[in-house]
Amino acid sequence: MFKNQTLNVAPAAVMTAGTNGTFALKRAKGSVLQTLVALLFTWEDRIKQRQALREMDARALADMGITPSDVDYEANKPFWAA
Q1: 32-55 helix and 68-75 helix, angle to the nearest 10 degrees
Q2: How far apart are alpha carbons 35 and 4 in whole angstroms?
């Protein structure tokens, strides 16, 4: 990136969880289809990240300061939960 130049890229959608268990879909500029595709990619990414976390050995987790209970908590979240 050059100085004084910005990259204007925003996610098509962000799903946020409310405190009462409800979900809100905040849509950026774009079509509904773009929003849904972005949401599906986000969910897929979460699934992959949580699977990778489950597969890490104890030493790697300790290096990052993550406990086995942290892994259990994060890995057992549903894919739609951030």
Answers
A1: 150
A2: 29
pTM: 0.60
Tell me which DSSP letter residue 5 carries. Answer: -
CA distance 24 to 15: 6
Asked if 71 contacts 54 with a C-beta cutoff of 8 angstroms, the reply is yes
pLDDT tens-digit readout, 14-56: 555 555 555 566 655 679 999 999 999 999 999 999 999 999 9
Could you identify the residue written with the tokens 């509904």? 32
CB 13 within 8 A of CB 39: yes
Tokens 């990259």 correspond to 7
